[in-house]
Amino acid sequence: MTDATRIQVTGETRYDVVVGHGLQDEVVSALGQQVAKVLIVHTGSVGRIAEELRVALSETYHQVLIAEIPDAENSKRVEVAAFCWTLLGQADFTRSDAIIGIGGGAATDLAGFVAATWLRGVKLVQIPTTVIGAVDAALGGKTGINTSEGKNLVGVFYPPARVICDLDHLQTLPDNEIRAGFAEVVKCGFIEDPRILEIIEADVDVATNPSSPEFRELIERTIAVKAAVVSEDFTETGVRENLNYGHTLGHAIEHAERYQWRHGVAVSIGMMFAAELGRLAGSLSDEVVDRHKAILTSLGLPVTYGAGRWEGLLATMQRDKKARAGMLRFIVLDDIGKPRVLAGVDPSMLQFAYQAIGS
User: Fold this and answer.
1) Domains of the chain with bracketed CATH
2) What's the CA angle centered on 295, arms 279 and 348, to 5 degrees?
């Protein structure tokens, strides 16, 4: 516990994101003593972590239940949320009880949505167990589920009481999952903190090794970027839009792939598209566009997508929640650390940018 780093999210609701090793005591601290019942929402892949936590919490709380949900985006369906609501109702959960989300970004999105909607809001503690959950999904207060029309179209902004990023949970992640999660790390490097990019470029294998000091520094730097943005703009009416860099096309690709692709893989292609769009808009240099390609490729992430898929992707993007009055909005860069909104883009420019990444 002595090595724990606390990064505070401020704004209307303050909470800590705690990074370190062996952070189980943080869970009781975050829940407090007024809670009587706890529901642990988790995916099957982290069942052991969930069960160990259930046993530990049972010493403090009257009733600790477990809800196992499907892995990845299959968990973000209204049917899964309804399953959790049924458990809460049958156990007579009150507004003073709590929900814990354990897993990757999809699990914490779903757990957050259930917590936000049960009795219009019960206490929520998030315990991300993937890179993407730790640096992105679990800590911004965005919760949601998918529909057949697109990703995250149903959801609410709902802040957790605490986010507990126990680095021990990341030690056994497969290398390809770590590297997919690093798409969000790279994103924060390009929109705000260039030191992130430098650490990855220095040695990508060290940077993605969960046991290295560099890995922890990257996790903490990325969390700090997001925490600062969320503190300033919780409900995404301004600067928080910058966190969508690479996500407009990325979400459309996820939809096209029926959510069988990891989020970070799709966002990698989306960032490459956004970089090409920035270049066509006359703001981004060839050097920075090439740097996108070099860093993402070094992580083993894709930077191209099917040349014949554009029309379907465009239709999906037009339904995206980031569109306003039917007008597509993209985050592009003027330079590293200088993101801006590009709206009302000429359709031919979008198509030219896509042709640059078409394969």
Assistant:
1) 5-170 (3.40.50.1970), 175-357 (1.20.1090.10)
2) 25
List, for residues 35-82, the tens digit of each pLDDT value.
999 999 999 999 999 999 999 999 999 999 999 999 888 899 999 999
Q: Whole-angstrom Cα distance, residue 33 to residue 264?
A: 38
Query: DSSP class of residue 210?
Result: T
C-alpha 347/C-alpha 323 separation (Å) is: 14
CA dihedral 244, 250, 251, 256 (to 10 degrees): 170
Checking 203-212 for CB contacts under 8 A at 24+ apart, the result is 204/298, 204/299, 207/182, 208/175, 208/178, 208/179, 208/182, 208/299, 210/167, 210/170, 210/171, 210/173, 210/178, 211/171
DSSP secondary structure of 261-310:
S-HHHHHHHHHHHHHHHHHHTT-S-HHHHHHHHHHHHHTT----B-GGGH
Residue 91, CA atoms < 13 Å, CB-side half-sphere = 23
| Residue type (1 letter), 284 | L
For the full predicted model, state whether its pTM sits above 0.90: yes
- Residues for the chain: how many in total? 359
